[in-house]
Design brief:
mainly alpha, two-stranded antiparallel ribbon, three-stranded mixed β-sheet, 19 helices
Length: 426
């Protein structure tokens, strides 16, 4: 038995998995080691890990160089492909397909680490398993026209929209209770449909100096650290957004379910590690965004915010419904973010022009445009996972049923099984 299989067997015992050995076990263990070592070569590559500590320590002590990791990722993919479907159970065939997609993403990212240049679309396809359909910016002009009619006044449209939204900024001293009230409601609406681990919990922190507005750091054992960035004033709508996205039924719920259902119950070691640049992120970000409307369908969000969050924040709830309509229109501009990111990363526009376009088509201040572009510079084609991911997950939920219970059941399946983007097209 190889060292990888010995380690995998030890992990199965440690997590209480009770099943027969699989031809994929050794490949899965090698995949985890490869991912951890790639994480030592690129900060942020590993988003979460809750497997054996000695595996992480070994990766830190002796990481392979990027060129070797790239060759080994290819070799591992070949080993995986050589496993005949007839030798696998139905569950293992799903597992094989998931590992193949994850290894393709690893090969792509390692090639990028070595300096290989890819177009925005090719990079997105290689990393996340989806080739984005990018609309020309002119396709969003009718939405801008509708918003322009809704937000009267003088000056550029982004300035008027920004000023309107700034009426809904949560005072700094009210941010913690507003966020906790929002997260509590997101949780209540989620646990009404999805059973979560009894020990589940999260910590909430407010941070600065980030290119993102919120982040979930999953620690394992149903525990998350949720961080909210306060570099820019936080508006009232972000409370529910982040409560659902980073918490319930978003990242916190997804990671807990994958740990419980796959890593622990089945002993699938590949689910003890989460590489950020992989199809996992398309599902994670897309389901986290789609989960907002699932938890708060129709006008329920505006009603909840007006009745619960606005009073805590000391804001006038009279404008909640109109603000909600504006937010719906702004969401329809989400695709423009991908188009602008592609134009910038493919070298079709420079940084100054990209900032101007973000202000024009995302209707944000210069500071918010700079934060948005900083995110694109740091995470590149990862931006497709938000708008496109949300649209594809939402469409999948729509195909499932109109009945809320059936939609929640489908969401639970998406976030608790080895779901790939291609599964959302069926």
């Amino acid at each position: 038995m190889t060292r990888a299989l010995l380690l995998a067997a030890a992990l199965f015992l440690a997590i209480g998995a009770k099943r027969a050995p699989s031809p994929l076990d050794g490949i899965a263990a090698d995949y985890v080691h490869l991912t951890l070592e790639a994480g030592e070569r690129e900060e942020g590559y590993v988003d979460a890990y809750y497997g054996p500590k000695d595996w992480a320590e070994a990766a830190k002590a002796h990481p392979r160089d990027v060129a070797t990791l790239r060759r080994d990722a290819y070799a591992l993919a070949q080993r995986l492909a050589a496993v005949k479907p007839a030798a696998l159970t139905a569950d293992d065939r799903v597992r094989q397909r998931f590992l193949a997609a994850q290894l393709e993403a690893a090969e792509t990212r390692l090639a990028m680490m070595e300096g290989e240049k890819l177009s925005f679309a090719d990079e997105a396809q290689g990393l996340f398993g989806v080739r984005p359909d990018l609309k020309p910016l002119a396709a969003y002009d009718p939405i801008l026209k509708t918003i322009d009619a809704m937000v009267p006044g003088e000056g550029p449209l982004w300035q008027r929209v920004d000023a309107w939204q700034n009426r809904f900024v949560v005072p700094t001293d009210k941010l913690d209770p507003v966020m906790r009230a929002a997260i509590a409601e997101c949780r209540a609406r989620t646990v009404a449909h999805i059973r979560l681990p009894e020990q589940e919990r999260f910590d909430l922190e407010f941070v600065t100096g980030k290119s993102w507005s919120g982040y979930n750091w999953y620690k394992g054992d149903a525990h998350s650290l949720i961080q909210v960035n306060t570099d820019l004033p936080v508006r009232i709508d972000r409370a529910v957004d982040l409560g659902c996205h980073e918490g319930y039924p978003g990242h916190h719920a997804l990671n807990m379910l994958l740990e419980r259902n796959l890593a622990r119950a089945r002993g699938w070691v590949e689910f003890t590690v989460y590489p950020l640049f992989s199809p996992q992120s398309f599902i994670a970000e897309g389901s986290a965004n789609a989960g907002i409307d699932l938890a708060f369908p129709g006008a329920e969000r505006a009603r909840f915010e007006a009745s619960r969050l606005y009073p805590i924040a000391g804001l006038d709830p009279a404008g909640a419904a109109a603000y909600d309509r504006l937010l719906d229109l702004l969401h329809q501009l989400a695709g423009a973010r991908m188009t602008i990111a592609a134009m910038y990363l493919d070298g079709k526009v420079d940084r100054a022009a990209a900032l101007d376009l973000i202000q024009t088509y995302q209707l944000v201040s210069r500071k918010r445009a700079e934060q948005s572009l900083s995110f694109t510079e740091q995470y590149r084609s990862y931006v497709i996972n938000y708008g496109l991911g949300q649209d594809m997950v939402a469409a999948d939920l729509d195909r499932a049923a109109r009945d809320p219970a059936a939609r929640w059941k489908r969401m639970e399946a998406i976030i608790s099984q080895p779901t790939l983007p291609a599964d959302l097209r069926r």
